[in-house]
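worker-3 :: picked PadR family transcriptional regulator
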Amino acid sequence: MTIQIFILTKLMEGKNYPYNIKKKLSEPIPFDQLAGLTESKLYYHFDSLAKQGLIETVEIIKEEHRPDKQIFEITAKGREELPIKIYKLFETADSIGEMMVGLANIKYVDKDKAIAILEEKLKSSKAKWEYYKSFEQLIEKDKDNEKLIEFLGGYVSTKAEHAIFWLEKLIGQIREGKI
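worker-3 :: tokens ->
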């Protein structure tokens, strides 16, 4: 989904073609390599978006000794679907890291709706963390497992508290118009 959101947002900026979008993803930081995005995967997503009616070919450029270059643009349906895809990304992401493409393109959504989704995610995360903490009293500790339980408990609590902290910070930054 994040690749499709990225493609749609690039096409919101104007007509473009797959190779150029992949190039933008790789410079100056090779995000394409970091995400494992190959040209075949990119073309697959362009094809999928076209089949959904979210983008369309508007021009084919023929060059000698080179493959034809298909130029795409976003459709009206694609403009309507982009915010829906970003909202869905926010709803399904397990971490802020998984939301990065949506956050980078938050200008295409209603920020109040995004905040509401993130606040619900925060509420759910806090409730889940409280539920998990209740198990602490059920664990039998003895001399053999005491250090392991301390280690794992510290790891899990730090990770959960860290995620909650950053989600609260993200909501605040969006609310204040900083993001």
